[in-house]
Amino acid sequence: MNTLRTSMAAVVAVALAAIGAWPAHADGNASLTGTVLTAGGEPVAGAEVSLPEVRLTTFTDEDGRFSFAGLQPGDFLISVASARSGGVVARVEATADGAEPVTLTLDKLVHSHGITVTAAGVARGLGEVAQPVDVLGGEDLLLRKQSTLGETLAQQPGVTASTYGQGSSRPVIRGLGADRIRILENGLDTGDVSSIGPDHAVAIDPLAAERIEVVRGPAAVLWGANAIGGVVNVLDGRVPDKPAAAPVAAVVELEAGSNADKRSGAAKLDGGGGHFAWHLDLYARDQDDYSSPAERPGHGGEPETGTVENSWAKAQGATIGGSFVADRGFIGIALGGYETEYGIPGHHHHHHEEPSVFKEDHEEEEGGVYADLEQRRVDLHGQLDNPFRGFSAIRLSAGWRDYQHDEVEGDEIGTRFTNEWTETRLDFLNKDVLGFDGTLGLQYSHRDFAASGDEAYVEPTETTKLGAYLFEQTELGPVDFQFGLRYDNQDTRSSDPDLPDRDFQTWTGSVGVVWSFVDSWSLSAAVNRPERAPTAEELYSDGPHAATRAYEIGDPDLDTEIGAGLDLSLRAAYDRFEATLSVFATRYDNFIYLEETGEVIDEFEVLQFTQADAEFTGLELHGHYEILHRGSSHLHLGFSYDRVQAELRDTGDPLPRIPPQRGRLALVFMSEKIDARIEGWWVDEQDRVAEPEAPTPGYEMLNASFGYRLFAGRTVHELILRGRNLTNAAAYNHVSFLKLAAPLPGRDIALIYRLLL
């Protein structure tokens, strides 16, 4: 810890000295003003206006006006984006004597191919990435936000969640979860222990998120071997990377919900002046036990509905960050903390899976068990633009996480988990080197994990990883060609002298193409060969794990997991219609999973980590059709469908907790002041299950929302009435270990208020 702090301080000092020698764009005497209009000539309020060459961003007022001051005279690239009215990119001139105000007209609704993603390695549009990527932000994120990251993303194409009450839920992508899905916060690992147990929370609260990027399928080249199934990158702006648009800007969100009596609030402040920019966020939530109409086992084995006992949750957190910004880069740091307590429903039930909804080997209750989680974190981010010929930027990211998680029974701590995590990434972004743009990088991480108490099923371990990677892309006429290669060394050691240390060397490669074969149509293909080394828990476990309701035994002789996959996507993007169809198939050699042994220890079924060949196949379809477009008003029909099938190749037996097929239809009306939505979900039954996993019935669910925005200068007030599961449908999440004991919540009516100033 002391070494890390010393290193960070040294890096900050050097970077400040280097960056501080550069001239700042804010020292000029030129200005730029203008107005943003729709195609029908109406002013666009709340549009984002950026000068990317000098890292300045502002927003239009209620009359569509914007202004920039303190510029050097000259031409500037200006970019305007409005989720409801469209976007435009143009060249404009700023002069010392005041140029004539410019008028920028937005000509169409912004489609997904105009959205930039960062999780793809270099900043690229969605339509330029071979691997399927989705971005959740703005109004969509506000309406999707729930108490956990998994639930927030559970309705994205190809994404479900391993729900475990209201306090713990991790994203599952294409049927893969746990260590195969890497969860990042601004490109750095969360440093929690959510990957080793479904009852362990992700140390990110959606209240802090500004934007979430999801990579579906292998992304190990850039993000490491534990991204073999996908990546979730949460962006929160805690380390500013550009000058402040105003001395102080604020966003406040408040929500109250009927189911579980939910209360939550968040405040985000950004500001600064000159070379300095700062960020502050505060958030808190509190919710009681939730209610569900779905029947589940009750006391004595009789079915019951209503309140799901011990499903409450509460959380709070805060972060302060600041950066020094100049024309050629920035250096910044953020200090934050996150705390949460949540009940663990069904913790006392010592069985693996029930054969039906109404049968249960009910044990004497031990009382409500809850988790008490605390994390402290430090993040350092910096970038130097145009450092030398051939490179557009050098980017540094470093983080430290101090994590503690107690499982409390009554007044006693039954099990304590601790995890200290450090990570450093150094990326060299090359530009037009032999026609290629891309990233060359190094990544280091160290994990010091320990568990103590009644359910400490693994001895303390240390895991050190060192990786080197290359990702490049080039344009060959209508074809965008992309390839990547990565090498990782993983050293895993147990404190038990009787267990062997394991060293793994893994290689990962990917090749992708995006072919724009006709106007508005493109075909992308990605071939991936990822490798994943076993985790410490898969190697060394030996004890009861209540979350999986089993006694888990590791295998210190496990081999590297090797995948070989193909992704194909067909995209169509017209002014009024956009759709993407993706199909995928991935084969795994030495796929690691828990296998039943038939033995019982202390009323826990014994499961052994073992390996076999497996196969995952599926498809995803999503898009929208614009029914009506008049001025700033849009009415469109959204749709999505996804399915996945996973099985052992040798036997054809299905793997457990694979989500069923599902579909969605949504009718959305958007204007500058009104946002109204209604959507229906259909989720099929899942009866293709592993033994002795229980099947789950299908269900239909109806959601709706209505929002109104009031503009007062540059201040925006937004009030939203949102309803989830309006028909109070009985629903079970097949991916959850508690799918029968803790089904999905029933009807919830929430009132949301958001203030932007």
Q: If you had to describe this structure to a student in words, what would you say it looks like?
A:
With 757 residues, the protein is mainly beta. The protein folds into two domains: 2-110, Immunoglobulin-like, CATH 2.60.40.1120; 114-756, Maltoporin, Chain A (Beta Barrel). It is 5% helix and 57% strand. It contains five helices and 43 strands. The chain has a 22-stranded antiparallel barrel. The protein is globular, with a radius of gyration of 26 Å.
Quick summary:
This protein is mostly beta strands and 757 residues long.
List the helices and strands and how they pair.
Elements: H1 2-20, E1 30-37, E2 48-51, E3 56-59, E4 65-71, E5 74-82, E6 86-94, E7 102-105, E8 116-117, E9 124-125, E10 133-137, H2 138-144, H3 149-153, E11 159-161, E12 171-173, E13 181-185, E14 188-189, E15 211-216, H4 220-223, E16 230-235, E17 248-257, E18 262-273, E19 276-287, E20 291-297, E21 303-307, E22 313-326, E23 329-343, E24 369-388, E25 391-409, E26 412-433, E27 436-453, E28 461-476, E29 479-494, E30 502-518, E31 521-529, E32 531-532, H5 536-540, E33 542-545, E34 550-553, E35 561-573, E36 577-601, E37 604-630, E38 633-648, E39 662-670, E40 674-683, E41 699-712, E42 715-724, E43 748-756
Parallel strand pairs: 1-7, 13-16, 34-37
Antiparallel strand pairs: 1-4, 2-3, 2-5, 5-6, 8-9, 10-15, 11-12, 13-14, 15-16, 17-18, 17-43, 18-19, 19-22, 20-21, 22-23, 23-24, 24-25, 25-26, 26-27, 27-28, 28-29, 29-30, 30-31, 31-35, 32-35, 33-34, 35-36, 36-37, 37-38, 38-39, 39-40, 40-41, 41-42, 42-43
